[in-house]
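Known limitations

Files may contain more than one protein. Parsers should not assume a single record per file. Below, a two-record file is shown to illustrate correct handling: read the sequence, read the token line, then continue until end of file.
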Amino acid sequence: MAGGKETPRQKMIGMMYLVLTALLALNVSKSILDAFVNIEENIQVGNITEYDRGLKEFTKTQGKLVSVDSTGTKTESPRAKAVFTAMNEIDKLTAEKIQFIDKIKLLILQALGEDLNPKAEKPIFILEPGQDLNFSDTKKPGLKKDVAKRGGIDVVPYVKPIRMALHNVSKKDAYDEQMLIMGINESIEQPKKDAEGFKVWNEMLDYRAKLPVLMCNAVNELSKLKADSAGAEISTVEYKDPKINEYKDITELNTKLDKAFADILKKDLNLGEEIKKIYSGLTKNEKIPDPNGETGPLHWIGMTFDHAPAVAAIAALSGLQSELLTARADALTYLGTLVGGGTYSFNTVEGKAFVRPSAAAQQKYTYEVMMIAF
């Protein structure tokens, strides 16, 4: 364009067009990168919402651990304690997976040479009060763990992902570094399973396998309490991970889930349906056909992170955290329904009868009778 047998003026015009084309390309690229930044921001906002949804159920159950009657007498609720213990275990499991994914984000940003100090002029990580980020560790970067007391039980409080400001990342378009960390720098069909980033896949599968077990354990504990108080036989449900990583469509996935959880659905329909919903939300096809038909099936990690800009890779990781937080919130919401409203004391009980305002002669009508406590 700016070479060959051309006059100096033509060469100059050609060079200007070349520079203009390059600038336009950069602008398109910047728009795309900014879009990924906005997507990641929206995912983070959604993650906060899902975190708060689960926290609401957690707090409600914590408030039912001990009830106080009108005389000031305190009564502990064994049911609330059993459910609250299970909720704590779910939060521990979720925090473990959330923090692992945060570690992969940090490793990617470290590889890019970004300034990860929260006190930097343009900080990438925005910490909450009391959080301390170990951003310089090249093996296990992340929040320095702290232990808090909830209902007398030690738990890891950092279930919420670390807040990020991706617009402050300087190398938004880099992709070699994240592909190396995800283990797909050499093959997107057969990623390196020992790569630190690839382990995200295994961590998600581990969460999918363990979360329903914690839910079933809580239900079984409540059944035991009920049987002990009534002197009846204990009814329990058993969970076994069907390890579903391949399906044609959502219809086939539902069919496989119905078959896998048939026993639980038969014994406890509500529990079975909840586990089915959570399991479905955490399930992906491990192998995906190459849309271009150039190679064999691609691993989900390869398909998702192949040549993805750094900000897109981080947004994808935040998406996985969103799945974890949604599953957590759904599990905590279900468990919260298993706890009653607590112990109450009344000093007046009356019977009330309600009838329609008018009735014709010889016409039949029905009274509605209700017991009301004050």
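...continuing to the second record:
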Amino acid sequence: DALPISIEADLDAMDAIVDVDEMHFTNVIFNLLDNAVKYRSEDRPLKLRVTSRDLSGDRLEITIADNGIGIRRDDLKKIFEKFYRVSTGNRHDVKGFGLGLAYVKKMVNELGGEISVASTINVGTKFIIILPLTQN
């Protein structure tokens, strides 16, 4: 039996209008959520937290955080590289080619934004996307 998944959303950004390709941006968010599910901890329910907030300089911050298995510091430097896959130890159920996060970074950069990641082993991972707001 799979443990439950809960999603908490704190969407506090007021003027969150960004110029994005809807399909690619949907894929970016889906990819980050899908990774959270793939790399969940097997001994506790998965908690996802999605937030948005306004930043100075006409920018929007979106975060996607989980309480999964986390990513080792050595791997954090490389996770956005094409074909790089984090070793999951004895877990062989995680499929992929190591392209998802390279795609995510490329799309965020194409939108004039940036992405970063913070993670602690056995605590969770947080991806932070910062995008420029559309100028009226």
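Parsers that stop after the first record will miss the second one. For reference, the second record is described as follows. Residues 44 and 131 are 32 Å apart (CA to CA).
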